[in-house]
Write a structure and sequence with these properties.
The chain has 425 residues and is an alpha/beta fold. 33% of the residues lie in helices and 24% in strands.
Length: 425
């Protein structure tokens, strides 16, 4: 057991709490993408004090990127004293809106009962802080380490990651020879290694109608009623089919080991912006539905799409005046890193040492930025590992445990030792 390395992490317990509080106090809410730049600048200044070279990189042209809300990412690198592998810790700095139901200020970084509370505490500013503290401790113990260490704080993960990791991956920041191993400190529990995620297909379905006066709907064609037929067919045919599909992937929680589809939104006809006036009496000529289909390693994307399209095509044949359009919004294939990959075995070594047990190997029910590392960077030695309980993400009174951050930082430090110095316990 590397006592000096573990002691160095433990000595930084107060620092990990303070850093997590500082990060929470930047209200990096996405959408619209608030406070990205000052948060990235803060992280850069912190890492420069640890000897890192830093870059602020804007995701220009990405969805949501504007001069008012620039998609500002921070990438930091510290070279070792000799050639070797590069370990990269990637965390997203954006958080979802705070929502209702909080009993503490969501952006104050309140410390209570051994926990740090705040929006993003769990997902995933606590993980970012733990990785930085792990790196700080490792460099203090092994200043002559070989290879290189990188840390990035990236944006827009909560909305697909296109202005963050996807943008950087297109520029080679997540590809060999620059980077060899990537650890994403998402909150998947401190004794579990997340090997990847299910696939996702987001699409927008639009049913078409014909506008007419609401008092004479027989003169028009109601697009909302056509969408009702779509939803009925989904309930009767598609959802039972998806529920019957099971995967061998170790997806958590148990319910996500099936294929699933969520109807994110339905918009049709009169908007609600007429208030304080009154609605107009119109037959709606358009209705749009956004679907979020999560699929398994055993399914092909073509199969996933055809299940929906076949229902729409049948309605076109069987339902009078039924017309539709469908538009792809996002598609990501499932990914699963091999259990014997170097980054997996290194972090597994840390979990055994700190917790005295074998890690659980899991798959995330939803995608995260590993998708861009794999599909754009073509780098597959990538996992998610970090502190925090996944079920707390996006909820009121979100928190991360202080002990969990410290213990996860110890695991990360041991993993770095294995990947950079080849150390084994």
């Amino acid at each position: 057991m590397n006592e000096s390395l573990l002691r160095a992490v433990e000595d930084r317990r107060e620092a990990v709490v303070t850093l997590t509080q500082d990060l929470i106090r930047f209200p990096t809410v996405n959408p619209p993408g608030e406070a990205y730049t000052p948060c990235a600048e803060f992280i850069g200044a912190y890492l420069r004090r640890l000897g890192f070279q830093t870059q602020l990189i804007r995701g220009e042209g990405a969805p949501g990127d504007t001069d008012r809300f620039p998609r500002t990412n921070i990438v930091a690198r510290r070279e070792g004293r000799s050639p070797g592998a590069t370990v990269h810790f990637n965390s997203h700095i954006d958080v979802v809106e705070e929502g209702h139901g909080w009993t503490v200020d969501p952006f104050a970084g309140v410390v209570k009962d051994g926990k740090v509370y705040g929006r993003g505490a769990c997902d995933m500013k606590g993980g970012l802080a733990a990785s930085i503290i792990a790196v700080d401790a490792f460099i203090a113990v092994y200043p002559d380490f070989p290879g290189a260490i990188e840390i990035s704080g990236t944006v827009d993960e909560e909305s697909g990651g296109f202005g963050g990791v996807a943008h950087l991956a297109k520029q080679g920041f997540f590809s060999k020879p620059r980077v060899d191993h990537v650890i994403i400190p998402e909150p998947l529990n401190k004794d579990r290694i997340c090997l990847g995620h299910r696939g996702v297909w987001w699409a927008e379905i639009e049913t078409k109608g014909e506008i007419a006066h609401g008092s004479m709907p027989f003169l028009g064609d109601c697009a909302v009623r056509h969408m009702g037929a779509v939803m009925h067919a989904f309930e009767e045919e598609l959802f039972p089919l998806l529920d019957s599909k099971q995967t061998e992937m170790p997806v958590v929680p148990e319910g996500a080991r099936r294929s699933t589809m969520n109807i994110n939104s339905v918009h049709g006809g009169q908007t609600e912006d007429y208030r304080p006036g009154l609605p107009s009496p119109n037959v709606p000529d358009s209705c749009r539905m956004t679907i979020d289909r999560r699929f398994l390693l055993e399914e092909s994307l073509d199969e996933v799409k055809s299940e929906v399209v076949s229902i729409l095509d049948r309605l076109t044949r069987d339902r009078d005046k039924f017309r539709y359009d469908i538009r792809d919004v996002m598609e990501v294939l499932p990914t699963m890193t091999e259990r014997n990959a170097p980054v997996v075995t290194a972090i597994a070594e840390g979990i055994r040492e700190i917790f005295g047990r074998e890690p659980d190997y899991v798959i995330s029910p939803g995608t995260y930025d590993q998708k861009h590392v794999a599909r754009i960077g073509h780098l597959h030695d990538c996992i998610a590992y970090g502190p925090g309980i996944l079920d707390l993400a996006h909820r009121p009174d979100e928190w991360v445990g202080i002990d969990d951050m410290v213990e996860s930082a110890k695991v990360m430090a041991i993993g770095m030792d294995a990947l950079l110095r080849g150390a084994r316990t």
